[in-house]
Design a protein that fits this description.
Chain B: GO terms for molecular function: 2 iron, 2 sulfur cluster binding; metal ion binding; vanillate monooxygenase activity. The complex is a heterodimer. Chain A is about 20% helix and about 35% strand. Chain A is α/β, with parallel strands linked by helices. Chain B is α+β, with helices and mostly antiparallel strands. Chain B contains 6 helices and 18 strands. The chains are: A alpha/beta, B alpha+beta. Chains A and B meet through strand 1 and helix 2 of A and loops of B.
Chain lengths: ~325, ~375
């Protein structure tokens, strides 16, 4: 539909923690890649022999320390999940010289440069867009505060960089098994006009929003990245049948219906790939399992009807889905 | 393969190069977006470094710069309207807050989170509004050049502007090149002695500075007439400064060697040239001629305004003629350089290095 993919080559790999690996993706001829601002991410398009086409979203880190990556480079950090999923495929199969396809950078989590104070909250691998924002704030001498939370310090990627850049305005919070971050105290201490940028586990994002709402903050003061399309772990593979063409297409555990169709040469209308734009819903004729809706576009009524789904993010927990297409 | 995007072949930088009108523009720099008075509750648009920008003020008076192009169907947002601090696209009514976030899309049940419009860092230093068109991460307000004399009550300025079909490299060269004064501007700034007076050139990082002292000679009209010392011998001390790709300042101190009883001996002029590329071959140009004497003298205002306008119009003509020849004449020419071109060559080299660094080269 849109010509928006770039070819890049893996030029560097660094093991940041036992589970997180950093990849430097560079243009093939050192020409500048499209530019991006803090909070931006790219889609990484890859094909796993087990699951088929996989698209994962990775925030652009932007550089190391205060040092910027050159314009031919995108820097991402990939955390290996416990299950044998897309990230495991990346860790196992990407080496120096591997050629990949990525989308142009997209920014759904922009840093508002007009903030009087920014509170950055990172949970675990959620540090990647936050680090990019931190570098921006430090460079521009803006007021900020940062909390980087994780179970154990040794698991926190870029921990030394973050501590060095943030100095006294940053703190590392090791939550261990029960030392929860006191979000209420943190938010209460903020001067009026502080904007919060949070990237981390859904529970942390939700808790922050809840606390802010309790304190009477307007919604727009809490900004978070919405990684709707991320796997939840209970996905199962299934087959899609298209009524009109009578084709049967397999959808792997880590593949979306949209991508499985595209790989089979069926190009469905779509744009955002995150269940928002409303271009991709298809009519469901039969499904032998419940639909797992992961979009934000469909109404509650459409959702419960089980008659339609956004093929870019939603799937079924069954073996066969017949679509009116 | 059909999904792969074509990346425009990049400009190839080589070591030892000098900028000209074909060199990519330096983007990581504060440029002038407009005068404070031009930016208001009425949205205006202006193309800056090749990008269409819409400019307006919030209810609180803060200047805002957003891309003049709706992310949905490219409708120019300056053709929309302001409702409070919300910019409303005139095509489908998408609404954007001053940070560029989409806050409402009337035809959708939800607000799409990917529908923001790019905003640009801006800083107001009245009477100017500066904008950063490069990497917003590098937009440090401490880098905004000082122009305190434009708002200082101890100074008085006259001002004007031009929209020119020329390139910013040639414009900066013209401003650093003082040997053209007696010939292109015989009636105003130029005197023959001045063309031959010795100049000292120095570089401070990316800044190129020329110092020049011309002792005991007749003043040029543009300084002598408003000061009322055309019959005197003066020392003329001047500094011309390529301060950044966006600004050139020229400071002059005229010292009357035998001041009349009760009159001052020293007259200062600060001339500010502000240049923002519209494209690689067209520029927005604002000038200010500021003085620290006769602050309330309407005749001095009129004279300095007329003389400056005439001199700068001569520069505008010359630079437009030059670019037209350079672009349209088919036989290539490599222009000669001479000793007086040293400041301009240092400036061209600096612009080239900065553009190369932005493109990722380490020359």
């Amino acid at each position: 539909m849109k010509k928006s993919l770039l070819e890049v080559v893996v030029k560097g790999i660094r093991q940041l923690t036992p589970r997180v690996r950093e990849y430097l993706l560079c243009s093939l001829d050192a020409s500048p890649l499209p530019s991006y601002a803090p909070g931006s991410h790219i889609e990484l398009h890859t094909v796993s022999p087990e699951s088929g086409p996989i698209i994962r979203h990775y925030s652009l880190v932007g550089g190391a320390g205060l040092w910027d990556d050159t314009p031919d480079t995108y820097r991402i950090a990939v955390q290996r999940e416990d299950r044998r999923r897309g990230s495991a495929h990346i860790h196992d199969s990407f080496g120096i010289g591997t050629i990949l396809r990525v989308s142009v950078p997209k920014n759904n989590f922009p840093l508002d440069r007009r903030d009087t104070k920014s509170l950055l909250l990172a949970g675990g691998i959620g540090i990647t867009p936050i680090l990019s924002m931190l570098r921006s704030l430090v460079r521009r001498h803006r007021d900020f505060e940062l909390v980087y939370a994780g179970r154990a310090g040794a698991d926190l990627a870029y921990c030394a960089d973050v501590q060095r850049l943030a100095g006294a305005r940053g703190r590392i919070h090791e939550s261990g098994s029960d030392n929860h971050l006191d979000l209420r105290a943190l938010l209460t201490a903020q001067p009026g006009g502080t904007t919060v940028y949070i990237c981390g586990p859904a529970a942390m994002v939700d808790a922050t929003r809840r606390e802010a709402s309790t304190l009477g903050w307007v919604d727009t003061r809490v900004r978070s990245e919405l990684f709707i399309a991320g796997p939840t772990g209970d996905e199962v593979p299934f087959d899609v049948e298209l009524k009109a063409s009578k084709r049967r297409i397999h959808v792997g555990r880590d593949t979306t219906i949209l991508d499985a169709l595209a790989a089979a040469g069926v190009h469905a209308l779509h744009d955002c790939r995150r269940g928002e734009c409303g271009l991709c819903p298809m009519t469901v004729l039969e499904a032998d399992g419940p639909i797992q809706h992961r979009d934000t576009y469909l109404s509650e009524e459409e959702r419960t009807s089980q008659k339609t789904l956004c093929i870019c993010v939603s799937r079924i927990k069954g073996a066969r889905l017949l679509l009116d297409a | 393969m059909s999904e792969l995007m074509e990346i425009e072949p990049p400009f190839v930088f080589e070591s030892g190069g000098f900028a000209d009108h074909t060199t990519p523009l330096v983007r990581d720099c504060w440029y002038i977006a407009g005068r404070s008075g031009e930016i208001s509750r009425n949205i205006i648009s202006r193309r800056l470094l090749g990008v269409d920008v819409a400019l307006y003020r919030t209810l609180a008076g803060e200047p805002i710069a957003v891309r003049n192009r709706c992310p949905h169907r490219s409708f120019p947002l300056a053709k929309g309207k302001l409702v409070g601090d919300i910019l409303v696209c005139g095509y489908h009514g998408m609404q954007f807050d001053p940070s560029g976030h989409c806050v409402n899309m009337p035809s959708m049940p939800i607000v799409p989170t990917n529908a923001s419009v790019r905003t640009f860092p801006v800083v107001e230093r009245a009477p100017l509004v500066w904008i950063w068109m490069g990497d917003p991460d590098k937009a440090d307000e401490a880098l905004v050049p000082g122009t305190h004399w434009l708002s200082d009550p101890l100074w008085k300025s006259v001002t004007g502007d031009f929209h020119m079909q020329s390139d910013y490299v040639s414009m900066h060269e013209n401003l650093l090149d003082q040997t053209h004064f007696p010939f292109l501007h015989p009636g105003t700034v130029g005197t023959p002695e001045y063309a031959r007076s010795k100049l000292n050139v120095r570089e401070e990082g990316d800044v190129v500075i020329i110092d020049r002292a011309l002792r005991n000679s007749a003043p040029p009209g543009i300084y002598g007439i408003p000061a009322g010392i055309m019959d005197k011998k003066v020392d003329r001390l001047s500094e011309a400064r390529f301060a950044s790709p966006a600004i050139h300042t020229a400071f002059a101190k005229i010292i009357d060697l035998a001041p009349d009883a009760g009159k001052q001996a020293e007259y200062r002029f600060n001339i500010t040239h502000l240049i923002t590329p519209e494209t690689q071959t067209s520029i927005h140009y604002w000038w200010f001629n500021s003085r620290n004497f006769k602050l309330d003298d309407a005749d001095a205002d009129q004279f300095l305004s007329d003389a400056s306008t005439q001199a700068y119009l001569e520069d505008v003509d010359a630079l437009q003629w030059i670019l037209e020849v350079v672009r349209k004449d088919h036989e290539k020419q490599f222009d000669l350089n001479f000793a007086p071109d040293k400041p301009a060559l240092l400036m061209r080299r600096s612009l080239y290095h900065r553009a190369a660094a932005e493109a990722g080269y380490r020359l």
